[in-house]
Amino acid sequence: MSTRSFVELIADKSIVVLAGTGGVGKTTTSAVVALHAAKAGRKVALVTIDPAKRLADALGLDELSNEPSRIDLGADGNDGGELWALMLDTKSTFDELITRYSADPAQAQRILNNDFYGNISNALSGTQEYMAMEKLYELAEGGDYDLVIVDTPPSRNALAFLDSPNMLTRLLDHWLYKALMGSTRTIMKASQLLLKQLSKVVGGEVVEDVVAFFQAFEGMEDGFKERSQRVMELLASDACAFVLVASARRDTTIEAAYLARQLADNDLDVAAVVMNRLQPDFVRLNRRPRAPEYEPFLRAHDELHALADREETHIASLLSQVESDPVVVRVPLLATDVHDLDGMNQLGTKIFPN
Amino acid sequence: MDPDEYFNRTRMVIVAGKGGVGKTVLSAALARLAARTGLTALLVEVDGRNALAPLFEVGEIGYEEAVIASATDDSAKILARSITPDTALVEWLDDHGMKLVSKRLQKTGAIDVIATATPGIKDLLVLGKIKQLVVESDADIVIVDAPAAGHAMTFLRAPALLAEMARSGPINTQAHAVLAMLQDPKQCEVMLVTLPEETPVNELIDTAFQLEDDVGIQLAPVVVNGMYPIIDGLDADLSGVKSNLGAAKIDELRAAGDFRQQRSILQAGQRARLAEMLPLEQLVLPYVFDADIGLPQIDELADALAEAIANIELPGAADETAGDQ
Ligand SMILES: Nc1ncnc2c1ncn2[C@@H]1O[C@H](COP(=O)(O)OP(=O)(O)O)[C@@H](O)[C@H]1O
Ligand SMILES: Nc1ncnc2c1ncn2[C@@H]1O[C@H](COP(=O)(O)OP(=O)(O)O)[C@@H](O)[C@H]1O
Ligand SMILES: [Mg+2]
Ligand SMILES: [Mg+2]
After folding, report:
1. A/B interface, count of CB pairs below 8 Å
2. Ordered domains of chain B (ranges, CATH)
3. Which residue of A38, A128, A193, B82 has the fewest C-beta atoms within 10 A of its own C-beta?
4. In B166-294, alpha helices (H)
5. Is residue A189 part of a domain?
6. What is the DSSP letter of B284?
């Protein structure tokens, strides 16, 4: 286990990506880390994804947006640090990206109005991940912030975000696209036949939309390919740290180990593992008091310990599968949920003990 | 009501809720309970995670129906199968005289383009396949372990969406048929499950209203999973009670009791809020402290479920069944 502290790790980085399965506390943890870094004097941008409503309220985030807005740190913000945050708006981030890479406004409009594009930008799984990475890249490249912190959607698959910048590229590399854009007569003929068969399944208009979408994209592929490559380079750079957030249950640690493995397969290291929502550790007893009044307390104490012991075995199993020598942070389950600045500060003292 | 009476109300129970709230565990417990009442249950997994198999201590559950628990003297057998969107799409194309198309679509990868071009088509076809099972399977009750909440909405909305989008043709026909099944309470109902925590409770409430408004599906009682069993006496004043422990250890004991008490209060508050916001019966399942969930724990939870079901009355159901016979 790394001897570095989590504070040192974060202080060292200019991009932090929090990954993990749903409900483990990624969004909460990313807010706490952002808050802490801002209080330490850095200018921080936080990209949150679907925060719980009360957490968003506590941060003063009331709508989806593309631009970070400044969070009032009150008396805490006296070290010159600043916290800026946004709730990711997937659709409009995508629209902006299209507009930026279009040759002219007419091309942009053709794509934005296309129904197939509408499906991609709204519903396609992977789009949210793609736009989170896109926003990360934009904020990091913009150079306005010392630290960019990015929360990720609850996906089981690390590839969902590692591969997401390639989502469009893959579609554009698609056989069908090539066939439609291809020039030789035989290819054209073959694809026409396939399209006809496709129409039978999903209806003619749908197929027309797809064709129109591909045609509208003409000339933009290279720009997108290059950009996705640069996003990957940024993620792989020393400036960027991946933080794996996990809870200590069997199913969630299995999923976390799977995520870590996928990161490793892509030559990305897990810099830190945050084990969140652990049973608080109450001192063990060497003797048991006999008065009946103690019975209920003993039961509560025993049950929590039984759970804590099982958690330890799951943590050990997870850590044995993460080969990058990560910083390990243990965060107890608080007696209440974390929905306001007080709660975040309380959690902050657990994540960054001094 | 008796558990068997409950299972006889409908052919299929779709278990839905946010990720990690206990859908898979509840699905397994429902199947065990059904089996105990002598009903053969068919468990259907749709997210390809293979999470049910370890609970029943069997190997991977595949596309074909398999027995995952044999019949015994006091329980019927349990069947299971896993239906993934890709297998459902290919099978549907094959069944609709498009074997050649389906081969080519698969080979060229154009199937992904279809799925993107027609959002919901895979979900619709999974539901279509499930519908076929509900009609054809020998099982008395079909239990579907649905995808996580956000996805459950997309999943269950797909038929309505496609019924509107595809104005004619085989997809349209399929969409209407599936929608009719979803909207028929004798065919199916959705059992929403949550943990007694703020975020999942909010999500459950949203999902419940959307399901009723957008899909028109019958909602079963909601399940509140993972309630800490109440320990009486945690509010006792320990000062002056004799003990063989030092003051520091006693403080730890009290802190453990307080923590448990506080989490319990929080849970009770969330449960009450759920009751207030959503006029549905609640079935409460206890948090299991002593071991990770395996078959014995599933059976404990099935006991709890039986007791919880015994304590509720569902309006009209009994009359309807009587009328049917
Ligand atoms: N250490 C903790 N103690 C108590 N509650 C926590 C803790 N960490 C997170 N939570 C609560 O858990 C829930 C899920 O957290 P969230 O950050 O939304 O998870 P994710 O983003 O991974 O889905 C929230 O209600 C949050 O307040
Ligand atoms: N009543 C319970 N007591 C203790 N642990 C539970 C209980 N219900 C579920 N779990 C555990 O919670 C985790 C999530 O449950 P699972 O059924 O896999 O959720 P889902 O299918 O909704 O994602 C699993 O580790 C499971 O063992
Ligand atoms: Mg989140
Ligand atoms: Mg599950």
Report:
1. 174
2. 3-230+279-324 (3.40.50.300)
3. A193
4. 169-183, 198-210, 247-277
5. no
6. E
Q: What domain count does chain A have?
A: 1
CB atoms closer than 10 angstroms to residue A211 = 16
Give me B273's structure tokens. Answer: 């809020």
Which residues does chain B have within 8 Å of residue A249's beta carbon, measured at their own beta carbons? 292
**Domain assignment present for A214:** no
Say yes or no: CB of residue A333 within 6 Å of ligand 1: yes
Under 8 Å between Cβ of A161 and A155: yes
Question: Tokens 């007419």, residue?
Answer: A106
Instruction: Say whether pLDDT at B74 is over 70.
Output: yes
Per the domain annotation, does A104 fall within a domain?
no
pLDDT band at B75 (very low <50, low <70, confident <90, very high): very high
CA of A297 to the centre of ligand 1 (A): 27
Q: Which residues contact B40 (CB under 8 A, 6 or more apart)?
A: B34, B76, B77, B78, B79, B138, B139, B140, B141
Q: Give SS3 for A255.
A: helix
* Per-residue pLDDT tens digits for A170-184: 666 666 666 666 655
- Cα B14 from chain centre: 5
What residues in B contact A251, CB-CB < 8 Å? 20, 51
Distance CA B25, CA B298 (A): 7
Identify whether the C-beta of residue B47 lies closer than 8 Å to the C-beta of residue B154.
no
B81 within 8 A of B66, measured Cβ to Cβ? yes
pTM here is: 0.89
Note whether A202 contacts B118, CB cutoff 8 Å.
Answer: yes
Of A213 and B51, the structure prediction assigns the larger pLDDT to B51
CATH number at residue A20: 3.40.50.300
In tens, the pLDDT along B87-138 reads 888 888 888 777 777 777 777 666 677 777 777 888 898 999 999 999 999 9
Tell me which residue in B116, B250, B262 faces A335 most closely, judged by beta carbons.
B262
Which whole-number Å values give the CA distances from A348 to A6, A84, B198, in the listed order? 12, 18, 21
